[in-house]
């Protein structure tokens, strides 16, 4: 075929480059948290890096059984076909009953990160302002880049986000589209948002017209203390509750859910539908069958998991106290996967310590990776993740850390 | 805790509403294609609606075996853990060898729609202009709403997109960020883009600096005619090739891939990472094992699938000719799942015919759902999808359609 003559006077250059969109150009290369170049070069390094569940707490055998049962019952063909964007009705029903909400409000996602990115895109205007934990989970900050949002750091205290601080900023005229916090067993700072603060935060959201993004992946893993409640979140039309099976059934499934206010269900569905249609029918089939056909199984599994993580948390704190007396101020958390100890001696250089620890063969996240603004002692802290480390690994890791202290 | 006095003079209203973002507000409610209210009310309705593979052509038994083999080999724990955003190395390697490209250029996705939405967000500015097939796959048009793009309709001929038409528009000064087309067994119009047009389209993209989004889910399902080639797409840094296992291993897996130009791999990875981290480790594990551990199995499976779909396509055309002689101009396609017959008699009202057909118990997509601009006979056509319909269903469907013609 004949094309327009490229040598004609008004023809553009012979080859015009293809340029990514402003959105894509605005996405940063990971630095600090998640930067693989910071990992220990030692092949025997012990990683206390991520909020990773232990394989022994995950349903390896049960998923195989689940597939067998579904296949034997003639469910294979449906498991490989398209399904709805909202997610499986039976799975949403099981979750909704547990959460105590209408099943319509449950939207199945590809895990917690997916729930966060959907929420940011559905509710934050481009260039909008979002209040975030200080310190905060760094991957949420990267998700904010999808809408080019600015952040307003809000200090996190032992009992969670400093809601009074946020209230003052709002009273001074600050306006936000959303506040992001991890209410239970905060990542990285291990505390839990108190019931009083939950109520106050929701009241602020309703008064000022922003959304509370409650990122709650660890909430089922409480092994001490008192549950501070979620009803206040579910009762508000200004809260999106982000949850996932990642920490309880396995990150590799990529299966989670949102509890949405009723008025946001349709907008979220339309957005999700345009991204990737729906979560895997195959995965939903196996997980729905696992949960629905084995009444009580999930709670039995959780009970064992909590006991495992309680043991590891206590062991890690005990080893730190025994091997590094007076060097790190550590408290056993009430749940979750993280310890957030503080360097007791101001003379210790946190970055130099991390470099020496890496050389000794222990990897952890430096506190400075989580800083979102001034006024925090995070740079003097370490995030130690113990979820997927055995007793021996935890002991050896602390021995190596002690050598790094010198 | 004490909050700021809400009765203070500058306090906002007692309850401020939560408003979805402009992006979310810009997403339309499905009309026409995908509108459930248009479906036949008859419980025994036969649906010739979607590009759906037949269960008998999908690896139901093999996936169960694959899980058993992986689990027996001790791979269960890894299958439930996090994995990289790029996708499994072994799976990418298998795909890359088949495509004849460097494995780095393969990005694993949650299926074809996911690949399309990633591409649109990574390469089209907000409000940008995208040339699209006329007629076009309606769900791609909905994906364009993610960036509020405008469309430039380009006619589709028997041998695919009218590239000369596009060249003229570009020469006249029209500028676009992308062109979207389905090169093999076009959805809905069943044709295949000729080799000469592929080369000309890529040349235009390189000259004018836009991307060719080659959406190719049906390409493995050729059962007649001659392959028009993909090398020209893979050799250009102005083409994103979107593919998926949806039509060959099952939509329910939600597993696909992009073949990206090398310079776009990092931007796409950063975008994908922020959406939902990575595709299911569990699904990737089973599919990678299935493909890698059974050399030749995929091609054997495809050969049987092609034979099945060829048979159904031929049967459907034969039934139309036998039961509706002279009423519908139909041609057996060379592959894929769609027949795009045209009403021969101008006196037949296409919308009224569809209503009568629905009442008779046959569902199909009206041609008008696919129209993106003037100058097409699409409104006089029917999209009949035969992939998942048995011989008996196809015969009965045509009987019902014949009754609708009256």
From TrEMBL, chains A, B:
It comes from the Bacteria. SUPFAM superfamilies: PLP-dependent transferases. The keyword Methyltransferase does not apply. Its EC number is 2.6.1.-. Residues 77-401 form the Aminotransferase class I/classII large domain. It holds the Pfam family Aminotran_1_2. CDD domains: AAT_like. GO terms for biological process: alpha-amino acid metabolic process. Keywords: Aminotransferase, Pyridoxal phosphate, Transferase. One of its GO terms (molecular function) is transaminase activity. Its cofactor is pyridoxal 5'-phosphate. This is 2-aminoadipate transaminase.
């Amino acid at each position: 075929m004949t094309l327009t003559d490229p040598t004609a006077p008004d023809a553009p250059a012979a080859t015009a480059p293809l340029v990514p969109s402003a959105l894509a150009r605005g996405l940063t290369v990971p630095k600090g948290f998640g930067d693989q170049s910071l990992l220990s070069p030692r092949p025997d390094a012990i990683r206390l890096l991520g909020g990773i569940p232990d394989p022994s707490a995950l349903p390896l055998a049960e998923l195989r059984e689940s597939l067998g049962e579904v296949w034997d019952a003639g469910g294979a063909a449906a498991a490989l076909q398209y399904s709805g964007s909202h997610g499986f009705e039976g799975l949403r029903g099981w979750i909704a009953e547990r959460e105590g909400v209408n099943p319509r409000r449950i939207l199945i996602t590809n895990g917690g990160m997916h729930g966060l990115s959907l929420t940011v895109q559905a509710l934050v205007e481009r260039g909008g302002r979002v209040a975030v934990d200080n310190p905060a989970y760094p991957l949420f900050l990267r998700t904010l880049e999808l809408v080019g949002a600015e952040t307003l750091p809000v200090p996190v205290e032992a009992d969670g986000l400093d809601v009074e601080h946020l209230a003052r900023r709002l009273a001074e005229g600050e306006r936000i589209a959303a506040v992001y916090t991890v209410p239970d067993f905060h990542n990285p700072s291990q505390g839990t948002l108190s019931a009083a603060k939950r109520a106050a935060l929701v009241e602020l959201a309703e008064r000022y017209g922003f959304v509370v993004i409650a990122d709650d992946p660890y909430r089922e893993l409480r092994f001490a203390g008192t549950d501070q409640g979620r009803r206040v979140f579910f009762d508000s039309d200004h809260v999106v509750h982000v949850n996932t099976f990642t920490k309880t059934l396995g990150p590799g499934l990529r299966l989670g859910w949102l509890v949405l206010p009723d008025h946001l269900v349709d907008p979220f569905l339309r957005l999700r539908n345009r991204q990737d249609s729906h979560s895997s029918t195959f995965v939903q089939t196996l997980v729905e069958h696992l949960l629905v056909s084995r009444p009580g199984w999930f709670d039995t599994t959780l009970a064992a998991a909590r006991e495992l993580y309680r043991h590891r948390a206590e062991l890690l704190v005990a080893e730190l106290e025994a091997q590094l007396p007076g060097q790190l101020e550590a408290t056993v958390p009430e749940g979750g996967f993280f310890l957030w100890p503080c360097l007791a001696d101001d003379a210790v250089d946190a970055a130099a310590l991390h470099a020496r620890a890496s050389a000794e063969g222990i990897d952890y996240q430096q506190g400075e990776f989580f800083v979102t603004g001034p006024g925090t002692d995070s740079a003097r802290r370490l995030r130690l993740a113990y979820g997927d480390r055995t007793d021996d690994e935890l002991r050896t890791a602390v021995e190596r850390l002690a050598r790094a202290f010198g």
